[in-house]
Amino acid sequence: MTPPRRRRRLPEHEQPPPPADAGRQRASKNPERLYVVAGADEDGARAALDLVTLIVARAEPPPSAPPEQVAVLRLCAAPLSVAELSAYLNLPFSAMTVLLTELLTAELVQARAPIVRQSIPDRSLLEAVMHGLQRL
């Protein structure tokens, strides 16, 4: 296996032109776009979501839904965390919570608490079960 080749850094006046998809990446960082995605937040009320809250779609996207809401509903056919949705849609957490609050209000998605693994059972209980099975 060969190591990756390093690119030589050029002085600023000799920089090559940016790749074609760089404009798309810059557009996602545009605050005006985030305002359009999140909409006017009149009352400021947001759902109590954190990064590990699981989101599940409850309905198909309506025809009048904006593209970001359609993308969320299609991605959430299986449960996804808010952090995963934020990464897939390239939106910051704050814009994602506003978008999800709208979907929760319209009852198009459902928020679930994350599935937490149970702690390991008590060792003495496991030993008692094992000894009981050995006596059989």
TrEMBL record:
Span list, region Disordered: 1-32
Pfam families: DUF742
Domain of life: Bacteria
Compositional bias of kind Basic residues: 1-10
Protein name: DUF742 domain-containing protein
